[in-house]
Amino acid sequence: MARVSYRNSDIDLMARMMRAEAEGEGRQGMLYVGNVIVNRLKANCGDFRGLRSIPQVIYQVQGGNYSFEAVQKGNVFYQKARNVEKRLAKQNLEYWREHPGKYALWYFNPYAPCPPTWYDQPLTGQFKNHCYYEPKAGTCDSVYSGS
Predict the structure, then answer these.
(1) Which of 2, 20, 27, 136 has the maximum number of C-beta atoms within 10 A of its C-beta?
(2) How far is it, in rounded angstroms, from Cα 2 to Cα 95?
(3) Is the pTM of this model over 0.90?
(4) Residues 6 or more apart from 40 whose CB is under 8 A from it?
(5) 79-107 confidence digits (pLDDT tens)
């Protein structure tokens, strides 16, 4: 059973985002970004309450800006998805979760060492240039449940 319900168009959209955000970090880095996308859909808490589809996650606006910088600034995001990224996106949607993105709801590239917290959320780890953060204990338990 898939981690979340999805359509073929969701695979394409997610694949484009994964490539735009982490192509330079290889397949593993793109999978971690995919974890965050799926986790935000599953979370239904805090900033991610009420998100019910992959497009809602990808195109979410917070504080007047898109949550994912690539939507606003990324010319790669607006290119056609390639088969390799589509396969990775499908893995995330179906089953793939791994540390440090396993329960992460946020990531960013600080262009410096990862801070121990980001907006008061604890660091779970780093992969290449991206730092991953999961919700503080007791603030979003739904991200830890299910497959």
Answers:
(1) 20
(2) 6
(3) yes
(4) 48, 51, 57, 60, 105
(5) 999 999 999 999 999 999 999 999 999 99
Measure the CA–CA gap between 136 and 109, rounded to whole angstroms. 20
Q: How far is CA 68 from CA 21, 77, 101, 137, 141, in A?
A: 8, 10, 16, 24, 23
Q: Distance between CA 121 and CA 144 in Å, rounded?
A: 15
Distance of alpha carbon 124 from alpha carbon 13, whole angstroms: 26
Cα R_g (the chain), whole angstroms: 14
Sign of the Cα pseudo-torsion (70, 36, 119, 47, in order): positive
Handedness of CA 100, 67, 122, 10 (dihedral sign): negative
Structure tokens given for 21: 């955000």
Q: 145 pLDDT band (50/70/90 cuts)?
A: confident
Task: Say what the pLDDT of residue 75 is.
Answer: 83
- DSSP E strands in 69-119: the ranges are 106-108, 117-118
